[in-house]
Records
---
Amino acid sequence: MRVVIIGAGQVGESIAADLEDGHEVVIVERDADRCDELTYSLDVLTINGDGTAVSTLEEAGIGDADMVIASTDDDETNIVACSTAKAVSDAFTIARIKNTEYLRTWERSRSAFGIDFMVCTNLLTAESIVRVIGLPAARDVDLFADGEVQMAEFEVSEGSALVGETVSEADRFDSLTFASILRDDEVVIPRGETRIEVGDRAVVIGSPGSVRGFAADVAPDEHVGTGEEVVIVGGSEIGYHAARLLGERGFSPRLIERDPDRARDIAEELPETFVMESDATDIGFLEREHIGDADVLIAALDSDEKNLLSCLLATRLGVERTVAIVDQTAYVDIFETVGVDVGVSPRAVVAEEISRFTREGSAENVALIEDDRAEVLEVEVTEESLLANRPISESIHDFPDCLVIGAITREGELVTPRGDTVIRPDDHVVVFFEESVVDEVTGKL
């Protein structure tokens, strides 16, 4: 597949790195120095130029392109680039945008702007945050099969009931599968005798109810329900959408916003959210408002430094769990090392959403694990799949050892995979595998 990526920022580079092995990738970037960097670091063709110009797109081979991904940091540039590409080619176009108004317009008419798919950074990030805070100790949560299947990554801390147990002992839920244990830099495919250690990150796949039950085992003292208190720092678009989504789920969040006009607008639009006009780094204010009593604090300010400071202040005041927006994806590990419980990168969230369109076959959804070390993929099984019409115990031998079948849905019903389970055409299968075998796996699914 020939893919033209417009914009070589973190999102564009991440997508290009994911595609370079199995596809012909062309990157269009205005910054000549950035083009030179990527030429040496990735096996891609770089074009220095304006991605909205027909001449530049023709130089990139737009006539032969199967897909165009506009991933610059400017909404209007991405929309115009996709419109231009659609006018001169039959390529499938994907635009990354931040403003939800553009998304609403596109949703009313899927042909609007000449865009086949639109990815809204702010909304996707808010949805990711809300999923994470709904599960105690969860570091990452993704939904598959229209919400019938949930994938979650949990950190096993000291004092957890799972420490010292084997996987077979910890597997107490009928509709749950241990997909992997991430230990240091190793991806461990768990067997029944695999013992769980402090610091492990367990990736499980199953029904939402089973995943919630597993969360209670991982962190028995942590509970997140609609009665719990959530504080959002920052009335940015991400903060606004997080508050809105929480309100729709029965929470009554508190939101701190410094700008009086923005605070007034949010208060009028979100009546279930209690909006406070103040500087979120004012310790006196935080103490007066008993922010330390909150169960979760979400830092959604306009800079990584401010979000880190807000989380560290909140932890010092007694907040049980902190979630920070981290614009620079490379800083997520640093944030979590110095004391932030969960760092969420909007760029990584968008790259993950776009990546499902670049998978071979009938990929329905994709989740990337730990900086692309592993992947969870949902596919619809066809007659040609090596999984079709065979028991799992037989078909699994045709795949790499690092593949785990986590869940199956059939006509909307969850089927827990076992060795004698026969997968049928039209089933939706959720699988886990290491990133190193992505081409081999997707070619067989």
---
Amino acid sequence: MKALLLVDIQNGFCPGGNLAVVGGHEIVPIANALIASGKYDLVVASQDWHPADHGSFASQHEGKKAFEMGELGGQPQMMWPDHCVQGTEDAELHPGLSAAAIDFIQRKGENPQVDSYSAFKDNAGDALTGLDAYLRDQGVSELDVLGLATDYCVRFSVEDAVEFLPGVKVRFVEDASRGITADGIAQAIASMRAKGVGVVNSADILE
């Protein structure tokens, strides 16, 4: 079974959102084309779903500003603007995304004491979201991953897919993803390749 994982294609990470990725909205039509292609047996998505007092927010740390390094749960932590707060428009999936075709949505980042970049586990590695078990139960043998942002949530989701789904062929869809910095994107792709991940473009899938 072949599955498509859409990582955090939410208002908060698109232009106008609280933690916008440049060009984030540009991946929506590409994601929709892949969803509609008939190439996938299963479409799943992850959704950042933070409580308002999440510890990764700079607003929760006196004297800290967004995009400064801090600490959370004893680990180094990038301090983010408040984003994707549960129940807000910022946390909703992008309105242009073909959400009705999504079979399963895995929410993450609900524990205020630890951040969760990956769709599969929190950053401390102490808690699995359950997405790996769901995909195994569905009999997934191939997984293509795309979304926002390449150098954070997409990278960690891809690399955890390799770890938690042994034997599953994992690919990163580069043109259907956007990242925060050029260096970060390059490092993320190099790291994914080193772990055996295939790097493809949507045209390779749709042809």
---
Amino acid sequence: MTRRYTIDQLLTGLPVPIVDVRTPAEFTHGHIPGAVNIPLFTNEERVTVGTTYKQQGREAAILLGFDLTGSKWSAFIRQALELAPEKKVAVHCWRGGMRSAAMAWALDLYGFDVSLIQGGYKQYRRWVLKRMEQPWEFRVIGGMTGSGKTAILKQLAKQGEQTVDLEDLAQHQGSTYGTLNRLIQPTQEQFENDLASRLSTLDATRPIWIEDESQNIGRCILAKPFYTRMREAAIFDLQVPLDQRIAALEQEYGNLDRSFLIECTERITKRLGPEQTRNAIAAIREGRIPDFIRQVLVYYDKAYRKGLKFRDTARIVELPLDTHDPLQNTARLLAAARSLTTTTTI
């Protein structure tokens, strides 16, 4: 049996495996989180079918499609059975057209209960962008580099607070050293899909804790409506002593490959200045990691202070911290948030 469902129906109340029948290249560029790719065509085959459609028409393209997939159908069904032994799946292609219809027909013939997603992946992308436009109530954790923001965010999640870890979704720590020489960022489209998926699990009537970020997190870019909501939210400015921040950053970056650190430092020469860049690189080569960190923090601290000036001062909550213990700092942050809610609306 084949039924048709909207994206909202699928994502909110239809707990079945999702089969994406688009090409591997399309799937890699962006897909519904959790979906499994069972491509009807290879990347090259899709181009050939598309060209045939344009030059010879719909019927010729359909015949070519059956010629190309004729020997593949049993494999498609076996893959679907491995994914869904109960024979219940949702299927989609780019626009909910011929590719998904063909796969749905074959699976239905075999006895599957098939849900076709109306509008396909294209409609899903509209759903993603709408999530970015919702009036989320953010509480932003700010503070200069090395203030322990990520550790506090993780602690908040453990305590049942709503959180979104943008750096984890973007696979980047937000600075020029942000890949840590090992992280691989998703495509822009997949970043947006993953973020929308995370947001869809949260209660829009409750506050959501999020780290202060620039609009670009490495190569990933936050949608303007989403970023605007972040900038308008209350920000809790963690104020941690410089030496304490340097010690924390040494733990995080001290064991990274020196050539990676040098290459990243050279990329910000214009912002650091030639003398500071030379001093920072010399410190890296000589293994004086705290000195290297101290040099680059001059730039990052300046950039943070500059960004803070563009925020509404009435929505900046200064929070001095004298320990790097995430548990204690989280308790102080929550106390500050509760205190603020009793006097104003966050």
---
Amino acid sequence: MRIIVIGATGTIGAAVAAQLERAHEVVRASRRGPIHVDLDDPASIDRLFVTVPDVDAVISCAASGKLTPLDSDDDFYRGIQGKLFGQVLLARTALRRLRDGGSITLTSGVFERAERGMAFGALANGGLEAFVGAAAVEMPRGIRVNAVSPGWVAETLESTGRDGADGTPVEDVARAYVEAVQGFRQGQILRPSRAGVLVV
């Protein structure tokens, strides 16, 4: 398969690309690099599929957002644009560009417990997961759409001085994306953990 991994320079994206490259042709895309795409820029999503034609699958690992106070309008709407609307637009564009039987994998996320600044992330994650379930019934030509919903990644926690044992190793997280692409799931949310991939 020919697979685009968006966000391939990040912790999760790099691990996903490395695992998939063992068996597939992987095109690494990011905001910085020779294959450019920015989920905040609709035109760049269109250009991506012109630059990289004949694609079997696309994976979005780029969507993220910082902790944002509930009363911060600019950061709140900017985060919703990239994480929620950007990925929805990616899926809508991909369904017209992927080969028959292709796969779209988005990234939502899960918070084990609510903390200050997480409201926007919870909104984006919940919206994406609802979108995936509803969009699955409208996918044409056998195309599948799923989402991976990681919690804290162990390596990310360690890079900020926190205990990595509270997160999931990135290699385990990446396996959920590989399963979404190589498997037969449709309209489902895959949650990686140290114990394996759960479907929620």
